Q: What sequence folds into this?
């Protein structure tokens, strides 16, 4: 194993993020969803039905990327898409009862992903939220102070205001 004591913090963070993503996906495959799918389902459960473009903006991915995720979720019955009455060119996406069950199962997976519950500690969550707020502020056009107070941000810390940008 490499000498982790010598690694800079950024390398530790990105490596940990990749390892968590891989571990999640290895366990989520059993319930028929990916980590990206869980994120989309979580937003739909919390925010309600919305367009694919709005969902992509909140999750901070390209609309095409979200389209692929939604196609997988729809094929498994986790979301439903219906034509948008206000704009016939788009669809409203909502979480299905099966998607809600998958979301609940994924929460159990997250709680048990790392022995001892290290990923769900409030201290770690607070540190990660601080990093996201400070580094996300210039990228997503909000102030770190506003994000820290929750102004212009959803419960998960993502900004949903009109100044938010979509990036992959």
A:
């Amino acid at each position: 194993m490499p000498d982790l004591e010598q690694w800079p913090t950024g390398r530790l963070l990105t490596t940990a993020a990749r390892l968590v993503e891989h571990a999640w996906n290895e366990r989520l495959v059993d319930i028929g969803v990916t980590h990206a799918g869980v994120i989309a389902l979580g937003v739909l459960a919390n925010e309600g039905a919305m367009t694919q473009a709005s969902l992509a903006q909140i999750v901070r991915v390209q609309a095409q990327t979200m389209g692929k995720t939604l196609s997988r979720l729809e094929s498994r019955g986790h979301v439903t898409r219906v034509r948008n009455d206000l704009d016939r060119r788009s669809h409203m996406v909502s979480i299905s009862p099966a998607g809600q069950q998958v979301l609940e199962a994924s929460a159990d997976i997250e709680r048990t992903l790392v022995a001892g519950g290290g990923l769900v500690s409030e201290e770690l969550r607070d540190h990660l939220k601080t990093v996201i707020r400070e580094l996300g502020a210039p990228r997503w056009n909000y102030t770190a102070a506003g994000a820290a107070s929750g102004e212009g941000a959803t419960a998960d810390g993502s900004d949903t205001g009109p100044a938010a940008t979509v990036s992959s």
